Amino acid sequence: MHSLLDAPARDRLTELTAADVPALAAGTAIFGTGGGGAVHTSQMVAEHALRERGPVPLVTVDDLGPQDQVILLSGIGAPTVGIEMLSAAHQVETLLRESERVLGRPVTTLMAAEIGGSNGVSPVGWASRLGLKLLDADGMGRAFPDAAMVSMNVAGLPCEFAVLSDVVGNVSVLRTVDLHWLERHARALTIASGSICLGAHYPMTAATVRGAVVEGTVSAAVRVGHALLSSPDPVRAVAAELGGSLLITGKITDLDRRTEGGFSRGSVTISGTGEDRGRLQRLELQNENLVVLEDGEVVVSVPDNVTVIDSETGHAITTEMLRFGQRVCVLAWAADPIWRSARGLELAGPQAFGYDLPYTPFAGGTR
Question: Please, what CATH class does the domain formed by 233-353 belong to?
Fold first, then answer.
């Protein structure tokens, strides 16, 4: 199975313009695996910022020098709430100022905490507004709902601090003993702020970022988006670009979703149509799609990737936008190798989400 991150160097993007954002948004929605937040608003905001402020330099880990300071910026909270509660105008500037104050040095480069959903798109607009570079990498290679589920934690890199800001103007600096405590404290503050905040964390240098992030994911999301937007058969085009498999084509016939503890949780049942008539699959959700079951058997589970897409347009449908009666396909593909390591599975395998299930690497098809 090919890796979509292994593009030739000549195909690498060196900057992002407003014209790149539609493909980026379409690709990050796919990588969101149901989470990361719907991309529509973040796409409009990023396009506006790039038209107003100009392109954003997209740099690789190898491009970073000793003077560079990288930090992650992302939204945190329940995607269902994020549809209605927008960020405040100067929230991201507040985050940057406070982060630089704590660091004692200027930030030069932003990185997406997760390439999935709006958290993969928003950093482009933020980088343009702030006049910073963007790293062609992220901390997940997809979307996960928990602060501890990042590649830097798999690599053993400690997080020095985190800064949270809400729409009212409250700012909190967190110094926790590990990422699990960061998740608890950040989630509690986010719930107190209406279940949506912006956060900055994991300051890194050129030395510490190497080997700790999932590289090439911004460019990969743009490629997937272009495949989706330019093909007469977008479903097949996306599957081919990802090296993934279509698990089922059908209709949503049951949906149980609730906002609980700062997450969107629940399950969705898909009844097969056409060639898949007579089949049923159930997806378990926690912001992201976690487990797919059919006939009582696990078809695919975290950390491997599952995305629900519109069966005609190929566009991803986030968990908060799932509706009864939608015609969908379920697409799955293998996780980045970092998540299949022992430490990766400890942090983001089925048991990390409370499922008493062994992990079986997804290799395509329907098991």
Answer: mainly beta
